[in-house]
Write a structure and sequence with these properties.
This protein has 110 residues and is mostly helical. The chain has four helices and no strands.
């Protein structure tokens, strides 16, 4: 990030795990219910839940999945998660933009 900041002194970055703006209302995962619900919301044709084994628990080692069972995912859950994400992320982005504009107006750059 330091090299990016040096090359782009007027830019602002906010790095966070994707679940941070979810404020604990939803858990982060990998290919679990949360990521799969987002995928079903944004790109539903890429999700094939019946392809998952139905006779056993899903694991990271066997299936590459962590977190809650993705077989319970839905686009409705993805939409609810997106609403929470935006509810928490938009004010933070607006604050960063305000800081950036104030800094630029004051000639501070970064």
């Amino acid at each position: 990030t330091d090299s990016f900041a040096a090359a782009h002194p007027d830019a602002r970055t906010w790095m966070f795990p994707e679940y941070e703006p979810l404020q604990g209302r939803y858990r982060g995962d990998h290919a679990g219910i949360s990521e799969t619900s987002y995928q079903m919301l944004f790109h539903p044709g890429t999700v094939d839940l019946p392809a998952l084994p139905g006779d056993r628990d899903l694991t990271l080692d066997r299936d590459g999945i962590t977190g809650e069972d993705p077989r319970r995912a839905s686009s409705e859950r993805g939409e609810a998660m997106l609403s929470v994400f935006l509810e928490n992320a938009v004010p933070r982005v607006r604050a960063l933009l305000t800081q950036a504009h104030a800094g630029a107006a004051a000639g501070q750059g970064r």
